[in-house]
Each structure stands twice: as C-alpha cells, then as structure tokens.
Amino acid sequence: MAIDWYDEFVDLNYTPDSDEIICLFSCEPASGISMKEAAGRVASESSTGTWTTLFSLPPRMRALQATAFEIDGPYLKIAYPIGLWEEGNAVQLLSGIAGNIFGMKAVNHLRLIDATLPEAYLRHYKGPHFGMDGIRDMMGINGRPLTGAVPKPKIGFSAAEHAEIGFETWMGGFDFVKDDENLTSTAFNRFEDRVIALAKQRDRAESLTGEKKSAFLNITADTETMKKRADLLVANGWNYAMIDVVVAGTAAVMTLRDYCSDLGLAIHAHRAMHAAFDRDPRHGITMQFLAKMMRLIGVSQIHTGTAVGKLVGTAQEARVLADILREKKTMGVPQMSLDQDWGHIRSAFPVSSGGLHPGLVPDVLDIYGDELVLLVSGGIHGHPDGTRAGAAATMQAIDAWHEGVTLEEKAAGSPELKRALEKWGSYQPK
Ligand code: CAP
Ligand code: MG
Q1: What backbone phi and psi angles, to 5 degrees, belong to 85?
Q2: In the prediction, which pLDDT does 51 show?
Q3: Distance 319 CA to ligand 2 centre (A)
Q4: What is the pLDDT of residue 375?
Q5: Are 113 and 289 in contact (CB under 8 A)?
Q6: What residues are neighbours of ligand 2 (ion), with CB under 5 Å?
Q7: pTM of the model
Q8: Are 148 and 354 in contact (CB under 8 A)?
C-alpha cells in the first residue's frame, strides 16, 4: 500500500490553465530526495496534500491540487488552481505558497522567486491608489526623481529638532522628509508632536520656496493606532503615510491601504526586515515577490536598493524590481522573475536609499532613471556645510546626470557639490 501520494502532484507534461497562479521556486532537495520528489512535496504541501495517503479522498479535491509542471536544474514551476485562493486575500496566498513548505525536511533550501498572478486573481485587488502619475500630479514634480531624506542620527531628536532638520532639508531643494524605520512615537519624539511641528516647518518651506513639500511620517504600530495616526496626518495637511510593511504584516498593510486611500493618503513602504528572508540566495522569499505583493495590495512606493550603497542588492535586481513596480506588463527575467500583466493595477515607485551621497547619484540614476524616489540621508546631513548644502549638492548631481556632464564638471559651478565630492568622491560605503 502506498504510504504517500506526492507523485500525484507532479506532471511534467502539464500545461497550466490561463487562470492558474504560476510560482517559480528554486530548490535544493535533501539527500536521498530527487528534484521530482521534492517538487511533488512542495506542490502538495502548498495546496491540498499531506504526508500520507488518506482513507478517503473526495474526487473534487483533485481539481484543487497544485501541479509541479516544470523542472529545470534547481528551478521548478508549480501551477495553482484559482479555486484554491480566497478572492482578494493576499494573506491567505502567503499562507499557501509561502507557508509550511520552507520547513519541509525533504528540502535543504527552498526559495520562492516570483509568481505570475492571472487576471482572475488580480481583479479582486485595487492596487496603488495614485500610481506614479498620480503621485507626480499630487506633488507637482515632473522630469526628475522625487527626493527625500531622513534626519540622522536616525532616532533621538525631539520633534522640534526633527522638524528643524526637515526645514533645512526642504530648503536645500528636497521634496520629502522621511521618518526612519525605527522612529514611531517615543518619549522624546511623540508622533503627534512631530506631525504638528513638521507641518509648521513645511508651511514655512512651502511659502519660502513656492514648492510643494511633504513627508513620510511613520505610522507603524498596531492597526487601530495606525488608523488614528493616519487621521492625524490628514488633519495636519499631510498626503503620505509611511508603514514598515514587513514588520507590520500583510494584513495590516491591506487594512491601511483602504483606510489611507479613503483619506487620500499615499503609502511609503519601508521594507525593514526583508533581508531576514530575501538575502540568502538559496532560501526564503525574494524581494521581487515582496515588491509584487506590495504593489498588488497597493502601496505607492517601496525600497528596492541602490547597488552602490551600504546594503546588499545588485544593479540587475534593482532593475528587475523597478520593472515589477513600474510596468504595465513586466517581462520576466530568467531565474529572477516571471512575466506579469498588471491589468488595472496602477504603478508604484521604486525607492533607492541606503548609503547614498551626491557622488553616487549618477550611478543610481543610470540604474533607475527618473521614475524613482531617491533618498539621500547621511549623504546630506554629513555634508561639510550641513544639511541644506547636502540637499543642494544632491540636486546638483541630479542636474549633472540630466545634462550629461560629469560631477566634476558640474562641481566647477556648483560649490555645494564640489564640497561633497571633496569629502566623499565616489566612495561606496559598506
Ligand atoms: C538609509 C536608511 C534606510 C535604508 C533602508 C537607513 O539611510 O534610512 O532605512 O535605506 O534600506 O536607516 O539606513 P542612509 P533599504 O541614507 O543614511 O544610509 O532602502 O535597502 O530598504
Ligand atoms: Mg532608515
């Protein structure tokens, strides 16, 4: 008597239906387990199966079984019938295709690389409230990246000090002041105080510059508190909320997406904790899949790396992430991503941040182009002449890239950029 039925979840001649979700995994089977046996186990455990044959198996269940249909070296593709998935519930999708399977003894390593979501699945999601065009219209910014900075040190300032640094950032030419991922509402910098103090400085900067200024204020907390903080943002004239989406969780992001959308708030998604599961190339979940989920749910923008800054991530990965977020139709890159027709789902901005300074701006823009949110934080507050000069130097570096001149050539007529290059040159921090 057969003790298990995993092989019923593998059919290398199977052609998926157009409404099935297709997942790409990489897998290293445990010793004594073939790739085909591992594929059956992954498809089984992420759909209807379990470790043993069952006393009874209603025939209709077979219509819900996933099918491992392609094995190419360590890569495998699995098709999931649409009936497995609750309409509009991204949390349940994760429980299925990114749940138990990572702990199976049959695999030494398993990595969820990407998923192709069919229209039959996409139709239940709203996606980003604004899209990149909507954000640009809201801010009145065209023809260049949106720019922002986090006050540094990343936590410790009072609300008043934070707001003063914000003013200097805006007066240097930046569009946004961003809270850092670990700044929420602390004894020395209560969220309410920061919202109000920064709004006053914003109004000053807007009246002095004639430009729209905004901020990514971090509402991250339990969901009910996040809703209250979103209300406070709107009451003080803000048009963005920031959420640490990985630590807050997919369910919370789904709730706040609709809540913020009703309030007209865009969502800046910080991805802190992502490297706990996306850094090891052999195991976990890629940033590509996280970016796809967050666009699907509907954040307005999410961090996607710099390639040249202090945090891991290659230029190719950054380009793939940018396509997943920005394009109407994403073309898959072998072993990195799958094709995706986004249908009605609006676009989202990639955000490049982490160890950047004016000397690295051209490298980042060579990767992303202008359709980007560029965050330079230590790279402006560490400028020899202070925050405002640092922001100005960064804007001069963006201009240099647009003009097709080197930073050194630009620096000849841009004193703030000159001073930045004297300190950092093209140093790539680690
Ligand atoms: C960058 C940053 C961001 C990282 C996040 C920091 O500051 O504020 O959180 O960019 O990483 O705290 O390090 P600096 P990623 O500009 O001073 O480095 O963008 O890869 O998610
Ligand atoms: Mg930070």
Answers
A1: -110, 130
A2: 84
A3: 21
A4: 98
A5: yes
A6: 180-181
A7: 0.97
A8: no
